[in-house]
């Protein structure tokens, strides 16, 4: 998942917070491992493989000092979790958020392993972050925090080792700072050879066309395939979008081009409703400027419960994990939940949604467009090439549709949910390589 960089926001909140009070008790890593274990039983994977995949290879924690604008020194805690690199270098985002924790990053790193395997990419899973609120620091402080963090990670990252990307609270600019810091620590001889140390960079600094919208574009490809399978006309369809950062906003904008209308949105500041439908382009521009939907004039503030009780065709959770529990699953009146975020549905919530006949496009399939285009960026850096937007879009569309078909076929064969099917497809690929290479020594 990719979210936009946050800076100071003085706009008052319009409603209740998006994050439910029970979220911090959620054992995210345990939930992800539960899905892995179920998928392993489904396709009868040898036990030693799930044992290896049950914990990350490396858990890196760094504490580093940063001089703040007022001259004081503040100590920050940063993490980089490297889950698995059987298929290729570790790959995954860097998250800046006050809820960053070891457990959540372990879960997110594991999910990156499954995503890369599912999309047939020569990459493994990683995730990192710093536990702080980027809203509360200046842009200059944000740059110093980023540079000190990447300097502290040192040789633990690299274009053939571990390749970070943007996530919640970070963006292309953050990656430009990260790349520049790394370039200036490897020595003059290698400076130009290490552009691929991070992906999600600005195009001028070695990024790729189509990267910013890639995760949302992937969600849309999955929705269009689902709509075709279920005889749903997206023209005139209504959407609820939770989280209007990079993923949520781009998904809404792209779906609007197909005739779908976003009638309600929410983020960490609250929820807004507009029965006539929001203009997603204008709302996206507003959020880029104001860093939240708070104060947007074209919507009526509503409560979190009212948001989840609204009748619509598609719900796109694109915020944090653990947003759709038992209560929310009972409230939702939609045909499809397309997971733009990682882990937005709890296992208990998912069970209720499925019992109610609501379809779910699981996160490791639906939001894997981001890492897929990150891979394209890495390849372009290695080859010193620049692909056109049309080439990137065409490759992504083929990759997402192929993965969707593989997952739906696995679900049909094994008579299981799309989530378990997605894990099973990914696990099959990893198991095949472990079976061929065996264990060293």
Describe this structure in words.
InterPro entries: Aminoacid_DH-like_N_sf, Glu/Leu/Phe/Val/Trp_DH, Glu/Leu/Phe/Val/Trp_DH_C, Glu/Leu/Phe/Val/Trp_DH_dimer, Glu/Leu/Phe/Val_DH_AS, Glu_DH, NAD(P)-bd_dom_sf, NAD_bind_Glu_DH. Belongs to the Glu/Leu/Phe/Val dehydrogenases family. Pfam families: ELFV_dehydrog, ELFV_dehydrog_N. This is Glutamate dehydrogenase. Keywords: NAD, Nucleotide-binding, Oxidoreductase. The chain is α/β, with parallel strands linked by helices and 441 residues long. The protein folds into 2 domains: 172 residues, Rossmann fold; 153 residues, NAD(P)-binding Rossmann-like Domain (Rossmann fold, 3-Layer(aba) Sandwich). The protein is 43% helix and 16% strand. The chain has 15 helices and 12 strands. A 7-stranded mixed β-sheet has the order 9-8-7-6-10-11-12, with helices on both faces. It has a 5-stranded mixed β-sheet with strand order 1-2-4-3-5. Strand 11, helix 11 and strand 12 form a beta-alpha-beta unit. Helix 6 packs across helix 14. It is globular and about 55 Å long. The two termini are 36 Å apart.
């Amino acid at each position: 998942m990719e979210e936009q960089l946050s800076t100071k926001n003085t706009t008052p909140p319009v409603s209740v917070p998006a994050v439910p009070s029970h979220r911090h008790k959620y054992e995210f890593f345990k939930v992800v491992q539960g899905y892995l274990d179920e998928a392993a039983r489904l396709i009868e994977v040898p036990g030693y493989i799930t044992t290896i995949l049950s914990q990350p290879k490396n858990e890196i924690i760094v504490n580093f000092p940063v001089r703040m604008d007022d001259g004081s020194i503040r100590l920050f805690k940063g993490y980089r979790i490297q889950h698995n690199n059987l298929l290729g270098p570790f790959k995954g985002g860097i998250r800046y958020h006050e809820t960053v924790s070891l457990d959540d990053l372990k879960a997110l790193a594991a999910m990156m392993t499954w995503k890369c395997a599912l999309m047939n990419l020569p990459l493994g899973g990683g995730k990192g972050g710093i536990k702080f609120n980027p809203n509360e620091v200046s842009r200059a402080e944000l740059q110093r925090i980023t540079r000190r963090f990447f300097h502290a990670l040192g040789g633990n990252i690299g274009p053939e080792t571990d390749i970070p990307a943007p996530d919640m609270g970070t963006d292309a600019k953050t990656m430009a700072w990260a790349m520049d810091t790394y370039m200036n620590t490897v020595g003059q001889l290698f400076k130009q050879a290490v552009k691929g140390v991070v992906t999600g960079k600005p195009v001028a600094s070695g990024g790729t066309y189509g990267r910013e919208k890639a995760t949302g574009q992937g969600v849309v490809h999955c929705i269009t395939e689902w709509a075709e399978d279920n005889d749903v006309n997206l023209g005139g369809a209504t959407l609820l979008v939770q989280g209007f950062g990079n993923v949520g906003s781009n998904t809404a904008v792209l779906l609007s081009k197909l005739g779908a209308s976003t009638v309600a949105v929410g983020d960490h500041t609250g929820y807004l409703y507009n029965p006539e439908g929001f203009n997603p382009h204008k709302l996206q521009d507003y959020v880029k400027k104001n860093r939240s939907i708070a104060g947007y004039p074209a919507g009526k503030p509503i409560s979190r419960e009212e948001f989840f009780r609204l009748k619509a065709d598609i719900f796109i959770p694109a915020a944090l994990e653990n947003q759709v529990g038992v209560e929310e699953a009972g409230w939702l009146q939609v045909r499809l939940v397309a997971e733009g975020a990682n882990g937005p549905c709890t296992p208990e919530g998912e069970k209720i949604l499925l019992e109610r006949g609501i379809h779910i496009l699981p996160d490791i399939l639906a939001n894997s467009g981001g890492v897929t285009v990150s891979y394209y960026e890495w390849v372009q850096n290695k080859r010193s090439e620049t692909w056109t937007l049309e080439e990137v879009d065409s490759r992504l569309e083929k990759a997402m549709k192929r993965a969707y078909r593989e997952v739906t076929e696995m679900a049909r064969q094994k008579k299981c949910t799309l989530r378990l099917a997605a894990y099973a497809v990914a696990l099959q690929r990893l198991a095949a390589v472990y079976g061929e290479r065996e264990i060293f020594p």
